[in-house]
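RECORD CONTENTS
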Amino acid sequence: MEELVGLRQGSAGSPVTLQELWGPCPHIRRGIRGGLEWLKQKLFRVGEDWYFLMILGVLMALISYAMNFAVERVVRAHNWLYEEVGDSHLLRYLSWAVYPVALVSFSSGFSQSITPFSGGSGVPELITILSGVVLEDYLDIKNFGAKVVGLSCTLASGSTIFLGKVGPFVHMCVMIADYLGRVRTKTIGEPENKRKQREMLVAGAAVGVATVFAAPFSGVLFSIEVMSSHFSVWDYWRGFFAATCGAFMFRLLSVFGNQEETITVIFKTSFRVDVPFDLPEIFFFVAVGAICGVLSCAYLFCQRNFLIFLRTNRFTSKLLATSKPLYAALAALVLASITYPPGVGRFLASRLSMGQHLDTLFDNNSWALMTRNSSPPWPSKPDPQNLWIEWYHPRFTIFGTLAFFLLMKFWMLILATTIPMPAGYFLPIFIYGAAIGRLLGEALSLAFPEGIVAGGMVNPIVPGSYALAGAAAFSGAVTHTISTALLAFELTGQIVHGLPVLMAVLMANAITQSCQPSFYEGTIIVKKLPYLPWIRSRQTGSYPVIVEHFMNSTITTLAKDTPLEEVVKVVTSTDLAEYPLVESTESQILVGVVKRAQLVQVLQAEFPSWAPGQQHLQDILAGGCPVEPVTLHLSLETTLHQTHNLFELLHLQSLFVTSRGRVVGAVSWVELKKAISNLINPPPPK
């Protein structure tokens, strides 16, 4: 490389090197160097992890938008094919059914061939991981590619299969968050930090919801309510920052793509602001919540038991184990045949996309009043200006089609959730709840065509507001969350029905949480994932339960004065991951923990130099076998609630129980689960 040269001011014109030019100016050089150091300190003063959080939000927004763009083109091609094949019912049926069957079978086969962890929602496994359990390869980056392709095919099948995007996309965001966390660790050069890793995973869960619905507030609350029982304010700030970056970029891309003029909500509504509802309507909103709570209990019970049936039935279990694409194709064929528009699909508004379902259900106008004296014809293809006509049939009326939609979609949703492919289950239940609320809202508008008189004023019933309450209540009851109320407001951009919608969600949750586990907990139970249940029984009788009542008293300890022959017998006859180390066999004073893997390694290395009967465990401990200190242990008087809180807050797997320093037992998830189960279903008296 040629050396840079210049001219010194006042010189005769002979060139000089850059070093010679600045050499006489040490103050300027120090000033520039100091300025650069100051800029570097200011940039990284807030912490380098904030930059990775911003990258996480922006990157996942780009991926979410790209997936929506590709899926929209595929769905548009499917609709074009269905309209252009002609009037032959056979060709129209084949164009309607073969398309989603092929996409669903490919989604199942491709994702399962890459990795078996890519099927389903992914949220139950994330809950397990964030509770402290290590699931091997579940967050591996190769799983990300399988999820992207599989989920795109699932969404491209449209409302025929009636599945969503949220769950798998949350899983994808957490995978990218885990990868960025490892990149950050290598970039900074610091040792692996589990707390930092957890911060990135929680932020990834928030970004997942934010970049699907452009709802950062709901994304953060989702990560609080669903992903963990205890939430750190430190994670709260990071989750909000990443979710806001993702939601902003996601909606900004819509502006750049000429889909929107500015950053707006996804589902636009125009509810009245001056008098959105009358006071007596509060009762009906609460009634919507109660109905959603009862129906969600039935849905969760049937869905969980159907999954158990598929796993225990001889034929279906073999089919799912050996031919997942075949099962997916058969299920998709059933769903596509039912939703065929000239057939049963005529009564299910099957020509509408899932987004159009919500747009129509949130409509302000009363369809029952609009069709009371007129019968609009069914158009050959959906009219963008009157999509609500897809819900109308002259013989069934609006009430018949809505009721039939609820009846059919109840079991069709359950069947769709069993298909082994990447798919989200939140948006379908959100739409189902909106249909529940819409049905009640239409009935009220017909019963009170002029509105409810309150305070001398008459305000017409708005069925769309009841659909909004039903969507939030049913989805909140199924997932055991309250954040669905806020999600409904972020999706529609209006909060005028804040109080009645929240009351409906609370009522639905009160009924469901007392009767059924959530959708995610039910999946954890069916898949037999390690998971610590909540103590839902808050009766007075649960508080006197202490560790002494449910601990495991038969534990294996290793004393320092134990002969090596006895140590070998203990190691070979048990499969524990770690052993409590005590001072002596007689005292049983707990001094630390010895890892099985490290103990076996040292025993194998020391085997040639053994002197039978002369060496003890303390000899190999002094020779380099590491002993980990016990920083936390339980006492016999520790209550069940305190123990449960410790396990959840610190993500523990087991703790030793001591009495005056002596180890007397141990408590793990097994003992905690049994104790909690005994609270709900007490054993019969002996």
